[in-house]
Amino acid sequence: MLKRYDFNASENPYNKFKTKELGERLSRAQRLVGNLGIPVLIIVDGWESSGKGFVIKDLVKELNPKHFKVSVFENPTEDEYSRPFLWRFWNKLPKKGDIAIFDRSFYFKVFNDLSLTREDLDRDIEDISSIEKQLLDDDTIIIKFFLHQKEKTQQKRIDELKEDEDRSFMISERDEDQYDHYPDYLNHFDAVLKKSDFTFSKWHVVSSEDKKDASDKVLGMTIDLIHEGIDRIMGMKNGGLRKELRDYSPHEKPLDRVNLNLKLEDEEYNELKNDLQMEAQRLSFRLYTSGIPTVMVFEGVDAAGKGGAIERLTREMDPRGYEVVTTAAPSEDEKAHHYLWRFYKNFPKKGNMKIFDRSWYGRVMVERVEQLAEMEEWDRAYDEINEMEQHLHNFNTLILKFFVYIDKEEQLRRFKSRETEPDKVYKLTDEDWRNREKWDEYIEAMNEMLVRTDTDYAPWIIVEGQQKKYARIKVLQSFIEQARHILDQTT
Fold first, then answer.
1. Residue 2 maps to a domain
2. Which residue from 73, 201, 265, 427 has the fewest beta carbons nearer than 10 Å?
3. Residue 218 vs residues 150, 367, 452: alpha-carbon distances, Å
């Protein structure tokens, strides 16, 4: 893309407009996406000293500042470095109707690290592909610009900045390194651009030999691409092509194979529990000192005993090293973002543990059954969830997914027990009874979820929950087994 770029043939059809006129047209497009509730992500990347700041300044000059935000991404902070690669970018994504402008972006690492192996580069590009595809499927307009310049132009701009007392601080080691190794970076940038020029989010290479010309071209293209995105999204909403549901056999019913007769005697339970809890404590310390993040998910039917299992698992652990995240209905702010946004915000940094009492799997269970998500939305969520968990796995995260299961009769018994116990009655809600009326629909959704999101890197552990003691011991044993396994692989 860059190596074949002809600077002399770089025409600008937007030269006939004044910059202010283009800015005002972009402002109208901003109001339009705001009214339609469509988020827009604009990525401005390119060579150092290529005029990214100049271009972004013109991009936002006429915009309503309440509905756009510019985020600058450089070397990650210590906190960001201790999180999964995409964590800091998810936190800055636009909500519905807003515009986010990224000065550099998820591509910062892959563009600037010439030492990346092909395997690491391909893995990072795959992660980036997944986030862009997920945003696109969630009706986000994604626009990607790469500002290109000649080697002599870069040298001239670096020299000019060095001579300017007020702006010399803007020159970094990265500017100098890119100029000193211009041919190497040119080859590298070209390879990255080709790998990440996805059919669903293309790169737009813009010559920045003349920064004013580049600014007008980016403004004009942004306006056109926003309108193209609106047409695409509204066309789909009004009956355009939709992705067909993926193949899934309704005969695959893992819950039908669960043996709910498994039990432990009280004496055996008490003997096992104390030793297992102390071993879980020891391993949680080892995970912390080894810098291994842990993500645990607890799902299951209502009243299956998720909370009790979590309490027994963490009983002896240091509370400073773990946090239980209870997932409730999303807030208005959370509903204004991609549904995975609120979960990315809660992912642990290296060495820490997050335990999700219900999780992102609500998308394919309660949101599916209660028709809070369109069929196309919950159907594509299986792939989105698998990709997100693959990203966590790439970060050497210990992922444990527990599904605690009881039958319909046991659930009714526990509901009635809660009604008569003062210290448990708060656990029983009208929503629990409503969900029970849709038992068969939930079981169907749960079976499909267990089949389509059971992966080598994040398998489901089905916990037989008919007897609470048995379920609690199985959770402890499973944690210990998987923690030992990842520690053996890492240390």
1. no
2. 265
3. 18, 39, 41
Residues 327 and 288 in one domain: yes
Let me know whether 275 and 404 are in one domain: yes
H helices within 95-246, ranges in order?
Answer: 108-112, 118-137, 151-163, 173-180, 182-195, 211-237
Q: Give residue 250's pLDDT band: very low, low, confident or very high (50, 70, 90).
A: low
What is the SS3 assignment for 222-268?
HHHHHHHHHHHHHHHHCCCCCCCCCCCCCCCCHHHHCCCCCCCCHHH
Residue 443: its pLDDT value, please?
Answer: 96
| pLDDT score of 112 more than 60 | yes
CB of 5 within 8 A of CB of 148?
A: yes
Average pLDDT over the chain reads: 93
Tell whether 248 is covered by a domain.
no
Q: How far out from the chain centre does Cα 102 lie?
A: 16
Query: Which helix (H) or strand (E) covers residue 138, if one does?
Result: none
Domain holding 410, by residue range, is: 261-490
Pairing relation of β-strands 353-357 and 294-300? parallel
Sign of CA dihedral 60, 61, 64, 65: positive
Least confident of 103-112, 163-172, 347-356: 163-172
Helix axes 211-237, 52-60, angle to 10 degrees: 50
203-207/141-148 β-pairing: parallel
CATH number, domain of 41, equals 3.40.50.300
Q: Measure Cα distances from 446 to 255, 256, 370, 404, 437 in Å.
A: 8, 11, 14, 11, 15
Instruction: Specify the number of domains making up the chain.
Output: 2
447 lies in the same domain as 299: yes
Q: Does residue 243 register a pLDDT over 80?
A: no
In which element (H, E) is residue 70 found? strand 68-72
Alpha helices in 1-92 (DSSP H): 19-36, 52-60, 78-81, 87-90
**Residues near 338 by Cβ (< 8 Å), separated by ≥ 6?**
93, 134, 135, 138, 140
Contact between 41 and 142 under an 8 Å Cβ cutoff? The reply is yes
